[in-house]
């Protein structure tokens, strides 16, 4: 088999496993999802799973990265309708918090992710979000919209507030009731950075 075709097949298998795991983790949760059923559903073996991800936890990390990356992209798309600058940064944080009502996001990223992968602030996808926020904050400070505070501290606290608000909403017995509270306080906290 040609090297190029082999690489293609490996990538195809990887994508099949991620898609199947995403479905299984969303429906059953990480702990209850059977790796034998998951791999069989896409015509692969556990060996393919271990080869591509090391173990079930590695597969969860890949699924979390995919879903979290989509969340960040969706938040940016939603925020792009807001006026550029402060309003856009705030809209992006609010959009991220609102995604805590999405069942797939709730289960995979906000509940199982932290439970099985640890603190989200260390996830690569969260680091990408942080860098985008850091850049936005630096630009807002330069334009005199945000007080001259430490850029990294401001970006980490904004990101942390949005993430923790989403975690709180997702874990609530009645998330729909917590969401407006989380958004209101997030806005008040963030507004403290503005002149």
Automatic annotation (TrEMBL):
InterPro entries: Homeodomain-like_sf (IPR009057), HTH-type_TetR-like_transc_reg (IPR050109), HTH_TetR (IPR001647), Rv0078-like_C (IPR049484)
DNA-binding span(s): 34-53
PROSITE patterns to which the protein is assigned, alphabetical: HTH_TETR_2
Source superkingdom: Bacteria
Domain HTH tetR-type: 11-71
UniProt keyword annotations, A-Z: DNA-binding
Record SUPFAM superfamilies: Homeodomain-like
Molecular function per GO: DNA-binding transcription factor activity; transcription cis-regulatory region binding
Name of the molecule in the record: TetR family transcriptional regulator
